[in-house]
Amino acid sequence: MHIGILGGGQLAMMMIQMSRKYNFDFIVVDPSDNPPASKYARHIKSNYNDKNTLNLLINECDVITIDFENVPADALKYLEGKIKVYPNSVSVEVCQDRLKEKNLFQEIGIPTTQYKKINSEEDLISAIGEIGNDSILKSRKFGYDGKNQISMDNCTPENAWLKSSGVEAILEKKVNFKTEVSLIGVKTEEKKTFFYPLVENFHQNGILNSSIAPYENKVLQKQAENYHNLITDKLNYIGVFVIEFFINEDNDLIANEMAPRVHNSGHWTNEGADISQFEAHIMAITNLEIKSISISGYSGMVNILSKMPNEQKLINNSSYNLYDYGKSERENRKLGHITCVKDNRNDLIENINDIKSMLI
Ligand code: AMP
């Protein structure tokens, strides 16, 4: 089996590493010189919509997947019909655009915060009149990890519009949330979905800082699974799909965004589950049967941003798993992560705090 991945980042790297036992051949396409996955697979340095590269993938691969959602949907459309493409171009197109994403949530009855489409300064002024200043202006595209977001409580509409360079955006009301969780599920060609338990996520400056699983709440788990099924059915989706939610003060799930791929909040599954999200995704897109997925104990993950640690305690300690993506250091760049698994939640939280203190 030959698998092509558009994008050669750490997610592609872990899809390859975590599915080694199947002996699949991987080709990764990435315009950069040495993306993390290039150490483990053949790397084609190319733009994603280069026709020669796409034709090569059609000739040499059985299935194509992605490691980030900003792959041009046109490239996926070109591949579709000629070769299996999971996720399909429609799902990727929706997830690339915050407005389409929120409209889809609303259309199928999944609660979101109040939002408005913004195409001009006048739109912004009128939307603030309706939603209020306790809101965020978010660009519709290229806005992951808190990028291209302007908090309106200290900003005039004129300044915000100028700062946003006038790109198409949405204004959304801030959610006064108790916490944030995500649901990771994998859907197979036989239309069965296997879910991991909800994972609780802690962000700093809009970037995921740490995750703890499971977030134990049977009612919300069921509700989130229902929402996940509604979306993957609607999108005719195969593979790993993730929804990020706020839990508001009334204990309701409010959908924030979704990802048509494996996710940073699922890195704990490498050690905390019998089938990781990466292996599960590869199994689903190659039609290998998944019988069940189970987890053990309590798992945590801490992201390493900006600078790799040189703490020997972290590097040499067998109770932590340190992942180094091999990237050069840069402010707020995700360079690696650390996971740990414990039998009980209190021990896990102690461990996570320990890890965080060593990363400062
Ligand atoms: P996003 O890029 O939309 O995932 O936003 C990154 C993070 O910023 C979220 O995980 C939240 O912590 C915070 N955030 C984004 N949108 C909102 C909102 N409407 N209300 C409150 N916090 C938000």
Comma- or semicolon-separated keywords:
9-stranded antiparallel sheet, Rossmann fold, 5-stranded parallel sheet, D-amino Acid Aminotransferase, Chain A, domain 1, 3 domains, binds adenosine monophosphate, alpha+beta, Dna Ligase, domain 1
- Report the strand count: 18
For the record, what CATH class of the largest domain applies? Alpha Beta
**What is the domain tally?**
3
Number of helices: 12
Indicate the mean pLDDT: 95
Strand content: 25-35%
User: Which kinds of small molecule does this entry bind, naming each only once?
Assistant: adenosine monophosphate
Structural class: alpha+beta
C-alpha end-to-end distance:
43 Å
Q: What ranges have pLDDT less than 50 throughout 5 or more consecutive residues?
A: none
Rg, Å, rounded:
20 Å
Q: Biggest sheet: strands, sense, closure?
A: 9 strands, antiparallel
Give the H and E element order: EHEEHEHEHHEHEEHEEEEEHEEHHEHEEH
CATH architecture of the largest domain: 2-Layer Sandwich
**CATH-level-4 superfamily name of the largest domain:** ATP-grasp fold, B domain
The amount of helix comes to 25-40%
CATH topology of the largest domain: D-amino Acid Aminotransferase, Chain A, domain 1
Outline, from the CA principal axes?
globular
Report what the structure shows.
By secondary structure, this protein is α+β, with helices and mostly antiparallel strands. The protein has three domains: 2-85, 3-Layer(aba) Sandwich (Rossmann fold); 114-173, ATP-grasp fold, A domain (Dna Ligase, domain 1), CATH 3.30.1490.20; 177-358, 2-Layer Sandwich (D-amino Acid Aminotransferase, Chain A, domain 1), CATH 3.30.470. The chain is built from twelve helices and 18 strands. α1 (10-18) crosses α10 and α3 (73-79) runs antiparallel to α4 (89-95). Adenosine monophosphate binds at residues 113, 136, 143-146, 172, 174-175, 180, 203, 206, 256-257.
